[in-house]
């Protein structure tokens, strides 16, 4: 997420290793382990944080607030915190993913009727900027989102992993297709292949003609 904001690359192994080391040290000190702080990272990026000094300053600020200035938190109204989190959510959520999910469940004929085209010329707003999403991948997105709202994030992560790995397991054994649903691009490609393929009679005539030429030689 931070890489998307800053348009830079990072080392996932180093990030996970540092997070794991911090959780281990926190456990020895009686603390509770955690994961990446998406809200604080988003606020730091929105306020110009681009280098490693930004998360260091954020961590120091959180530590000082919890250890020294925790009484000050009682004077911060809940409405202010709610407003901050609302801004974080609107900047973190990828709104184009809604278009990708909706497009994945629509048949190719319906997409063409709505003006959605592959390879340019799409008349649907923002649709051309959305990557192609398989139907099964869209189903995973919907299931994880529903489980997160009605249960908790732990159940949603487990459900998403079960669906994704189950799909890959079936695909490896040939019990299920590997594409996760035919998108518009795949449908257009299939249509073009069918239109370009010669019929049985034409193919036979071409083959016979080729044989006659070879016999003449």
Please describe the structure with a list of short key phrases separated by commas or semicolons.
217 residues, mainly alpha, 2 domains, 11 helices, 66% helix, 0% strand, globular
List the helices and strands and how they pair.
Blueprint: H1 2-6, H2 12-28, H3 38-46, H4 53-67, H5 78-92, H6 96-105, H7 108-113, H8 135-150, H9 153-172, H10 184-196, H11 200-216
Helix pairs in contact: 3-5, 6-8, 8-9
Outline of the structure:
The chain is mostly helical.
Description of the structure:
With 217 residues, this protein is mostly helical. The protein contains 11 helices and no strands. Helix 3 packs across helix 5 and helix 8 packs antiparallel against helix 9 (153-172). It is globular and about 60 Å long. Mean pLDDT is 74; it is low at 178-217.
- What is the β-strand count? 0
Largest sheet: none
Proportion of residues in β-strands: under 5%
Q: What share of residues is helical?
A: 55-70%
Number of helices: 11
Which runs of at least 5 residues are low in confidence (pLDDT < 50)? 178-217
| Overall mean confidence score, pLDDT | 74
Order of helices and strands: HHHHHHHHHHH
End-to-end separation in angstroms reads 67 Å
How many separate domains? 2
